[in-house]
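Protein details
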Amino acid sequence: MADTAETVKKTIDQASAKAEKTQAAGAKVFRDSVEKSVAGMSELNAHGKKNLEAMVESATAAQKGVEAISQQTLAYSKKSWEDGVAAAQSLTQARSVQEMVELQTAFAKTSVEAWLGAFNKTTELYTASVKDAFKPINERVTATVETFQAAR
């Protein structure tokens, strides 16, 4: 009977040891899973913050571009108006129809050249503005794609 009691005690001790090891291993796996989840959530929050910062940077760049285009357009409009007034004054001082036609032709030529110059400058400003506005967003898309590719 003593041998049986001893055998039962050994079996219980072994089962207890195995249960403790299994519980410890399960607790470790659970802790590791929780830590990975928390780390993943932290990474996701950081990613979201960077995306928001990129959107703000993009909107700021777009606003600066609109301001530059507006200033350029206003400057062109003012200069065009002044040139038109000056041309009208010179036309009123013309002494002949021939002189009036020459003045009008010169004014038309300079007006078209000024408009083309302003148009080209506005196009350049617009292109630069779009490029600057999309740069932060493109960088975030690239970073996201790289993150997903690294995770595969």
In short: The chain is about 95% helix and 0% strand. Helices lie at 2-92, 97-151. The chain has a mean pLDDT of 90. Residues 2-151 form one domain.
